[in-house]
Amino acid sequence: PGVWEYLRVNLHALIVEELQPAEFLHFKEELVDGVKNGDFTLELDFEPFNAAFPRPTLHKYIGDGVEFLNRHLSAKLFHDKESLLPLLKFLRLHSYEGKTLMLNEKIQNLNSLQHILRKAEEFLGDLKPETPYEDFEARFEEIGLERGWGDNAERVLDMIRLLLDLLEAPDPCTLESFLGRVPMVFNVVILSPHGYFAQDNVLGYPDTGGQVVYILDQVRALETEMLQRIKQQGLNFTPRILILTRLLPDAVGTTCGERLERVDGSEYCDILRV
């Protein structure tokens, strides 16, 4: 009980042979697509991506997983100078849409990073807090600093001081503050696999309830927050928010049959139906 076996019957040769699950799924895809795709079979790996992550054992960390991970990471950074190399590597490789962020190739090691940060701190201390990043962008690029630190001298200085503190003496609070201000989130996907998800004429359909209104309100607020953060980080990227849901061609009187629909009251939020 609970074990499926798949069999294939050859009517011409009167032979029954067992199929592996992968072969059966491949056959089903061929029936749906109407073509044979050869070796390009869709495979999804549902193995937990965090299998190697540390796991809390104290009850006080239930619901505070971010704090626990920050403590764990800061403890690893505190071992020795070499433990900070992954952070340096991340900041040097960090980019988006082909644009290098945070650090460029001119900074090769931790000593040069600390030296450059101290020079930048001294330079920014002589500027007015509201000085826009564009006024000193060229100078920063010359010493190895790229966009992503902030949109004015005050925010850039705060960010640089956070990293200097982290390099001197890592602690969970500083690590959380620094990583929380590094530009990383530009695209968000919200999955709503059940219900008739649309903006009009869906109330009363099965599995709709208040979830439609809730998600629509949340994505508008999220767009506003992301736009503000991207601006404060000194960047001009546009965010993209997708609500991924089902395509229902037979839902007459609604837009559930449209593949792509812009969320009313937003610029960069769309409903994608598949």
From TrEMBL:
Residues 65-151 form the Sucrose synthase EPBD domain. It catalyses: an NDP-alpha-D-glucose + D-fructose = a ribonucleoside 5'-diphosphate + sucrose + H(+). It holds the Pfam family SUS_EPBD. Gene3D superfamilies: 1.20.120.1230, 3.10.450.330, Glycogen Phosphorylase B. Residues 1-29 form the Sucrose synthase N-terminal domain. Residues 174-274 form the Sucrose synthase first GT-B domain. The lineage of its organism: Eukaryota, Viridiplantae, Streptophyta, Embryophyta, Tracheophyta. It is an enzyme of class 2 (transferase). Its EC number is 2.4.1.13. GO terms for molecular function: sucrose synthase activity. Transmembrane segments: none annotated. GO terms for biological process: sucrose metabolic process. It comes from the Eukaryota. Keywords: Glycosyltransferase, Transferase. Belongs to the glycosyltransferase 1 family. Plant sucrose synthase subfamily. This is sucrose synthase. Sucrose-cleaving enzyme that provides UDP-glucose and fructose for various metabolic pathways.
